[in-house]
Amino acid sequence: KLFKVQPILSMNPEEEINEENQVLVTVSSFLPEAGRAQSLYSQLSDLYCSNRSKNVRVLMLFDLKPYKEMTAPSDEKDITAVKRVIDRLNNDFGGGFVMAVRHRVYSSGEKEYTGFERKRGAIIALVKLLRYEDSGEFLCVYGDTSGLHEAKYLMALDSDTSLSFDVLKKL
């Protein structure tokens, strides 16, 4: 053989994630500083485009960075900058992007305010929110929230994880 056999990716528009199997892809991260918020645009648009479907939503699940008090001076500015990115994504792609920011709580072990049980706690709080059991853990839920509660599947990713092309359709 002269060539190694490689699978060829195909796009079959008939293989759509149907409405009964809606997917919410959530990416956990610390809320970026206002000056770095724009980098989220390419990360989230790449994530969405690799698994594009009207029945796939992308939610950025943010924790505020640890701080000595419950509120840091830059919190509002950082949140506003990310809201602008979410608005731009929703405008460019016709919706499907949401951000959720959790409140800080005091951690006696770390002696500072931080997100409760950072990743696991964030996912638990999100599942409660999706099941209409909002426990007030979120400071902000913003973006295209229509249809969030209809998601049947939750795909949880870290901020440094990407999805392969059309992997959600294969799951």
Can you summarize this structure?
By secondary structure, this protein is of the alpha/beta class. It has 4 helices and 7 strands; from the N terminus they run βαβαβββαββα. Strands 6-3-2-1-7 form a 5-stranded mixed beta sheet, with helices on both faces. Strands 4-5 form a two-stranded antiparallel ribbon.
Please give the structural blueprint:
Blueprint: E1 23-30, H1 39-50, E2 56-63, H2 75-93, E3 97-102, E4 105-107, E5 112-114, H3 118-130, E6 138-143, E7 153-158, H4 167-170
Parallel strand pairs: 1-2, 1-7, 2-3
Antiparallel strand pairs: 3-6, 4-5
Would you write up a description of this structure?
By secondary structure, the protein is α/β, with parallel strands linked by helices. Helix content is 28%, strand content 23%. The chain has four helices and seven strands, in the order βαβαβββαββα. It has helices at residues 39-50, 75-93, 118-130, 167-170; strands at residues 23-30, 56-63, 97-102, 105-107, 112-114, 138-143, 153-158. The strands form two sheets. It has a five-stranded mixed β-sheet, sandwiched between helices. Strands 4-5 form a two-stranded antiparallel sheet. A hairpin with a 4-residue loop joins strand 4 (105-107) and strand 5 (112-114). Helix 1 (39-50) runs parallel beside helix 2. It is globular and about 50 Å long. The model is unreliable at 8-13 (pLDDT under 50).
